[in-house]
Amino acid sequence: MAKIEHIPYYSNTLGRNINVEVTGHWGHPIVMFPSSGGQYTQNTDFGLTGAVMQFVEAGRIKLYNVETLDMLSFYHNHMITEEKIHNYELYMQFLRNEMIPYIQGECNTHRVAVAGVSFGGFHAANTAFRFPDLVSHLIAMSGAFNIRGMAQLSDDMRIYYNCPDEFMQHEEGWKYDHMQIVLGTSDWDICRDKNLHMSGILNAKGIDHWYDEKKWTPHDWPLWKMMFPEYIDRFF
User: Fold this and answer.
1) Please, is 179 exposed, middle or buried when counting C-beta atoms within 10 Å of its C-beta (0-12, 13-18, 19+)?
2) Does residue 143 contact residue 186 with C-beta atoms inside 8 Å?
3) Beta bridge partners of 32
4) pLDDT in tens, 65-103
5) Which of 5, 22, 72, 203 lies 20 to 30 Å from 177 when distance is taken between CA atoms?
6) What is the spatial distance between Cα 105 and Cα 70, in angstroms, rounded to a whole number?
């Protein structure tokens, strides 16, 4: 039976606790994010964790489901854009300078994997593409890659640096040679075009990745529970 812990990790960067659900005893660490505004337990509550439990119990992977600040940033409807991007940028610094180093030390590994569905796929992709030296694998399922729609009328450059489909057009492809990348979608997925566009950017940069398009399945948990075990079994 897999070990499950709930940890209130205190972040000096954020000045608050960030809740983390840790599933497994050992294995390659995967930092997982919930979809838009979801609780840190969402991936477990909706069966995504359970879909890969055999790999957790076999010691191939260890899951770290991390709380986000969605409701204090891009999903706060009454917050001004400058405050949204300020809070989100602090969250990214928390991941880079605190959460990922903590996991690296606990798992004795140089790099971690990142994964997420829908807006969680955005968090995962943004983390992987901004901090490639810290990330070994990116698993983005039905992800989005741009937040300008939630930051209207802003010319703040911090928006640009949190839109992977913009800043990746100017990155050097060799930085990602070590990374295993999968962009998962389906022909009925509302994010299909976003994933096709992101795949085209990676192709133009010579960045190896797997664009995986399933059939006849909409943007929802059954699609992601079908995808995730396949990706884990292939990469870990």
Assistant:
1) buried
2) no
3) 65, 115
4) 999 999 889 888 888 889 999 999 999 999 999 999 999
5) 22
6) 27
Assign residue 47 a region (left: φ > 0; alpha: ψ between -120 and 50; beta: otherwise): left
Q: What is the pTM of this model?
A: 0.97
Measured at the alpha carbon of residue 187, what is the angle toward residues 185 and 189, in degrees to the nearest 5?
A: 55
